[in-house]
Predict the 3D structure of the following.
Amino acid sequence: RDGGGAGLWFSRKRGYFWEESPATAVFNRLKAACTAGESSTVVKVEERSKTHRKPLPLNTVALLQKASLRLRMGPARALEAAEALYIAGLTTYPRTETNKYAASFD
């Protein structure tokens, strides 16, 4: 708030808003903090860039581990999902159990 009074400080720990409802909730809180006739000023906006590297291809064992740990999928369901993605042309078939590839491999 302006005028040197008590301020409303806001810091988002989770990064970006990926859904509209949390962003709307924060906006409504800020709007309610500004009563009629008062104004607010944004004093600092921080932006950071982050480079995301391409993930390494998964071999079958790593695929099953990640499906189990992150998606809570059993091995049969994980392999069915992988097969469906392959048939749809969205993934490649894991032909090898290695993660070392030639420099020309993309």
Q: What stands out?
A: The chain has a mean pLDDT of 77. Residues 64 and 75 are 6 Å apart (CA to CA). The chain is about 35% helix and 0% strand.
